[in-house]
Write a structure and sequence with these properties.
343 residues, alpha/beta, Rossmann fold, 2 domains, six-stranded parallel β-sheet, 15 helices, 42% helix
Length: 343
């Protein structure tokens, strides 16, 4: 009988991206298995078409507000007949879907500071307490319950032809013929937002010191206004990107030489598509959420221990100076130059 493994990671966008190495490890170790993923609409466009996933089950935020919608999703999952679920989110809603799927083996995290929260430790029946710090490595450790000790991190994010064409046209319309940087001004929490004037200073430095223009990306009206402020104060060294879908943004970031932004979905997307990334880390522990891998850099001065303050306390982000961010940018740009010279 074909093994059927269902990943449950609904949101947020960055956390879904950080779960992709688990998807690839499952595929490498069980090449004949059927692999599914339950995910919310926002992040689904990044996973749809991935070579390691067979079936995608997209839920909306309304699913958990309607007993009928929840029952319909439960039927779809039961009809798929998973024998194993991997609850990488560790919340009531994710573990509930795993339980409703009918899977006999429901893997999840033991309760600790960030994982195994709410009712997930009751609804999942095989629990694992990871030893690693970073989200990627912690999630991969859960696979030991399936006999997998493969810790290789691979994303292999798909790129659709239409998204590639969009990115190439946009870069051409901005008259960019060489290297460029991406600056992402937004974040899901106010506590993760870095001031626009500081991003403008980064753009000025990259333009004046490296001859590298910056494209400022955004999502929503509030971020658009912040992006406009970056462009207005960068002495002509940055340009506004148009509004993009997530998959279009991924294609745009693929073509950049550097990405600068806070701990949010686009930052982790940059890592996933292989662009050198400077992550400005505010309230969360840097060892948990920093841009993963040796070609990237994270900056943090203060982290918060009280979970109640993480979404509102802006002091950790405000403590990060332009000089610190510039040093990380210069380090990654120098590495890129050395790598090109060596090749």
């Amino acid at each position: 009988m074909t093994k059927r493994i269902l990943i449950v990671r609904l949101s947020a966008i960055g956390d879904c991206i950080l779960s992709v190495p688990v998807l690839n490890s499952v595929r490498r170790n069980f090449p004949e298995a059927k692999v599914g993923w339950v995910i919310e609409e926002a992040a689904s466009q990044l996973i749809r078409g991935h070579s390691s996933v067979d079936d995608l089950f997209v839920v909306s935020k309304q699913t958990f507000k309607s007993s009928r919608a929840l029952w319909e999703m439960a039927k779809k999952l039961r009809n798929w007949q998973p024998d194993t679920t991997l609850d990488l989110q560790g919340l009531t809603k994710s573990s509930l879907l795993a339980w409703l799927s009918g899977a006999r083996n429901r893997l999840g995290f033991h309760r600790d500071k960030f994982d195994g929260r709410e009712l997930s430790t009751f609804l999942n029946n095989r629990l694992y307490l990871p030893e690693s710090k970073h989200i990627i490595e912690r999630s991969l450790e859960m696979l030991r319950l399936l006999g997998i000790n493969d810790t290789r991190v691979a994303f292999d994010m798909p790129e659709m032809a239409a998204d590639a064409e969009f990115a190439d046209r946009m870069i051409d319309s901005c008259h960019i013929s060489g290297r460029f940087a991406i600056i992402n001004v937004g974040a899901g929490w106010v506590s993760k937002i870095w001031p626009s004037d500081r991003y403008a200073s980064i753009a000025k430095h990259l333009g004046e010191h490296w001859g590298t223009p910056s494209l400022v990306v955004w999502s929503g009206e509030q971020e658009k206004q912040a992006a406009e402020q970056v462009v207005a104060n960068s002495n002509g060294h940055s340009m506004m990107a148009p509004g993009t879908s997530l998959s279009q943004l991924a294609s745009l970031i693929r073509r950049a030489s550097l990405f600068v932004g806070s701990d949010t979905g686009p930052m982790h997307l940059s890592v996933a598509v292989g662009t050198p990334t400077v992550g400005l880390i505010g309230p969360m522990p840097i060892e948990r959420v920093c841009p993963y891998g040796s070609r990237n850099a994270g900056v943090q001065n203060i982290r918060l221990e009280k979970s109640s303050d993480r979404k509102t306390d802006c002091n950790p982000m405000l403590s990060i100076t332009v000089e610190q961010a510039v040093r990380s940018c210069d380090e990654l740009m120098n590495r890129s130059l050395l790598a090109r010279a060596a090749s």
